[in-house]
Amino acid sequence: MPGWARRVQGPPGGGRYPREWRAVPGLSTRAHAVLLELERVHPREPLFRADFLGQLLSSWRTLVNRPRIRHSFSEPDDPCYCEFGHDPPQWARSELEAACAALPLPVARELRALLRPLDARFRARTLPDLSVPADRPWWYRRC
């Protein structure tokens, strides 16, 4: 285990971190501790902020669990645009993928485990969109 991970295994004096620090539902306390350390070391990188990751995951979960997924994500006035404003809801999934690539392996593994059932549900509820270029991620090639 890397030294920085050993340093953030828990709060000073042992115990658990306060519940309000657990900004990504389903992520372990240890993973949140790693995120806190990464946020301290890299304060300008949003992918290391638990609250930002929690918002991204919530946005993706909201899209996946909607009663009816719309077939067009390209309209600016489309109500399925995510809460981050100007980007389609798949942007949240793209940022989560970037976070999985940037985070340490144990945290990325936990995040991918949270994404796996949401991705499966999204695939089950959508169809391939052949009009989208093949170089785009799979979540953009679904409608």
From TrEMBL:
This is Uncharacterized protein. It comes from Allonocardiopsis opalescens.
